[in-house]
Design brief:
alpha+beta; Cytidine Deaminase, domain 2; 2 domains
């Protein structure tokens, strides 16, 4: 009994949270869901204060999930161990999203591509350029990273994009990259690389279907903007 009394108070609270989760997960508040996740990453610490602090700082579960590592580390109690856990959590969910897209019969909606890219690129502090490769029926053949850059640019060469398409025998492709600034509006460089790839792809019998830029919750589609 003495050992039971000396246990940290949060262990009993966490046990009750787990039981509530099993009884009906929708009844848990957002901070309680986050608290349980944090508890698995650091079981020897009361996770409730940190869960509430993270939600206060970033506004929502998605805001916490997509927050940049440097910003997360500024919250008291969020250390290196949790940083590793966050990286693992993000990678797991990103792969689930990628699997969903690969299993789709058709990829014909810019929002589908934007949702896929947001899971992979939404939290990054630097730009990354990816290509979604499809067959003649718009079924996914590949989802590949072409290049990584800085906070406001990433070097992209048409030959690298088209080499991926030819290697996978793709009939079409969608170019995708992120804007860490939060503004999805394309830069002059974005417009120019789109023009160059479209021209080069046409000469090889490959169709550039879209160029999607993700920035936070927003995205920009060249196709929807009638620029392709």
């Amino acid at each position: 009994m003495l050992k039971q009394k000396n246990q940290p108070h949060y262990l009993g609270h966490r046990s009750r949270l787990k039981q509530r989760l099993q009884d009906g997960p929708r009844a848990l508040a957002d901070y309680e869901i986050l608290e349980l996740l944090l508890g698995y990453a650091n079981p020897r610490r009361d996770a409730k204060p940190l869960a509430k602090a993270l939600l206060e700082r970033f506004g929502s579960l998605r805001g916490v999930y997509q927050a940049r590592q440097a910003d997360l580390m500024e919250v008291e109690g969020f250390g290196d161990g949790l940083s590793v856990f966050w990286a693992l959590w993000r990678e797991f969910l990103a792969r689930l999203g990628e699997q969903d897209v690969r299993e789709r019969v058709l990829v014909d909606d810019p929002k589908v591509v934007a949702d896929l890219a947001r899971e992979r690129l939404g939290h990054l502090t630097g730009e990354e350029f990816w290509v979604l490769l499809v067959d003649a029926s718009n079924r996914v053949l590949g989802w590949e990273c072409v290049s990584k850059g800085t906070v406001d640019q990433t070097p992209v060469y048409p030959r690298e994009v088209l080499a991926l398409a030819l290697n996978r025998q793709a009939a079409g492709l969608v170019m995708v990259h992120n804007h860490p600034s939060g503004d999805p509006k394309p830069s002059n460089a974005d417009v120019e690389i789109t023009r160059q790839v479209k021209l080069a792809a046409h000469g090889l019998g490959v169709k550039l279907l879209d160029h999607v830029i993700v920035a936070g919750k927003r995205f920009y589609s060249f196709r929807k903007a009638s620029l392709l």
